[in-house]
Specification:
The protein is mostly helical. It folds into three domains: about 110 residues, no CATH class; about 80 residues, Flagellar motor switch protein FliG, alpha-alpha superhelical domain (Annexin V, domain 1); about 100 residues, Orthogonal Bundle (Annexin V, domain 1). The chain contains 22 helices and two strands. Helix 7 crosses helix 12 and helix 9 packs antiparallel against helix 10. It is extended. The termini are far apart.
């Protein structure tokens, strides 16, 4: 083991994975800032002021000392977040240690604190940490490559990858698998997602998978891990899609910004050609007429904040020409959930506005819808789903 007993300014995981359980000399890792005194170390046979010998500790031993000290002080440590190999190494080290004298304890803590003070930047988590830090910022090919490396090293949970996949992808992935394998997947997913996954399966297949869940009680955890790794590998080996959004979503986004007459004509044609696809497109469409059904009352203020008042007046006036329609109900919904003063002002302006051309009215409504969609993409609001309505 390396002789240097310094506590590095790194996460506990790095203490446990240092070569041979020890630590590289600090000089190889960092240089003290000008004017800073060198960090004291615990030499192999140091003598304390009272004449007692200070023990030399390696990295794993120091990690064990710090963990025991923090636990004794009542600190909550999320050690379960460490990979199992690191948890085992830490547990084994704590089992072998007995008494640590006060001088050694003080030296270890002092070195750890002073080393932390010199850290300017720290990278956490290895490949797994890099995956989380770069999530959404890598190309699909690069992200797949990094996931494969992480799984090969056993530093990521394949079930997290499967949980992030959409249910349509999982249904396709499980088509060639037995009901027992599908039952394991259903059991590992969150309850809501598992229900959605079963709902997308044909009735007989869903019944067999649900029944197979009863046979998963005694399954070996290692087999569950192997199933997860195999499915995650299959998922990553699929060629990246040419388009990020599914077809129904893409058509829905296009028709959302299309004039009403064109949208209705295209939907009627899709109904004749492919009813299932047309239903998917309808679910993806969000227009001004959907606002009263899908927008949450508390989000009205956020949406209207980014819409010009002239557009609001034009949209409200145009919808008012179509009484007893969803567009008119959306106007009433928006007016009811804004300040009374603003609502009164808008009503007066709408009365003055008079007749509105179809083109101007459609553009004004689109401005309101665009505000809703922009806030959705930023994650500031969420629309109500059909399940919420039920």
């Amino acid at each position: 083991m390396p002789d240097d007993p310094l506590m590095p300014a790194l996460p506990m995981a790095d203490l446990l994975t240092a070569p041979d359980g020890g630590l590289p000399p600090l000089g190889d890792m960092a240089v003290p800032a000008p004017g800073r005194r060198a960090i004291p170390s615990v030499p192999p046979h140091a003598t304390s002021p009272n004449g007692r010998t200070i023990r030399r500790l390696n990295g794993r031993q120091k990690a064990a000392v710090l963990v025991q000290l923090l636990l004794s002080d009542g600190t909550e440590l999320k050690l379960a977040n460490l990979p199992e190999a690191m948890q085992n190494a830490l547990s084994e080290e704590m089992c072998t240690m007995r008494l640590v004298d006060r001088d050694t304890l003080v030296a270890v803590v002092t070195e750890f604190v002073e080393t932390l003070e010199q850290v300017g930047l720290s990278f956490h988590g290895g490949v797994g940490g890099a995956l989380k830090a770069l999530d959404g910022r890598l190309s699909p090919t690069a992200a797949t490559r990094l996931r494969q490396i992480a799984r090969a090293r056993g530093v990521v949970d394949p079930w997290e990858r499967l949980a992030d996949a959409d249910c349509e992808t999982l249904v396709t992935l499980l088509e060639r698998e037995s009901a027992e394998v599908a039952a394991v997947v259903v059991s590992k997913l969150a309850v809501k997602k598992a229900a959605e996954l079963l709902g997308l399966m044909p009735g007989e297949r869903a019944r067999r998978v649900a029944h197979a869940v009863a046979r998963t009680q005694a399954i070996n955890p290692r087999l569950v891990a192997r199933i997860g790794n195999a499915l995650a590998t299959q998922l990553d080996e699929r060629p990246p899609p040419a388009f990020a959004a599914p077809p129904a979503r893409r058509v829905g986004d296009i028709l959302t910004n299309a004039p009403t007459r064109m949208r209705e004509d295209l939907l009627s044609g899709l109904d004749r050609d492919d009813r299932a696809f047309a239903d998917g497109v309808r679910k993806a469409i969000f227009t001004f007429a959907n606002i009263h059904e899908r927008l949450k009352p508390r989000d009205v203020g956020k949406v209207l904040r980014d819409v010009a008042q002239t557009d609001l007046i034009t949209a409200f006036a145009y919808a008012g020409l179509q009484p007893d329609t969803d567009a008119a109900r959306s106007v009433a919904f928006l007016l009811d959930n804004m300040s009374q003063r603003m609502a009164a002002t808008l009503r007066d302006e709408v009365d003055i506005r008079g007749k509105v051309r179809s083109r101007d009215g459609e553009e004004a409504m689109t401005a309101v819808v665009t505000s809703v969609r922009n806030l959705m993409e930023l994650g500031e609001i969420e629309l109500r789903s059909d399940e919420d309505e039920g």
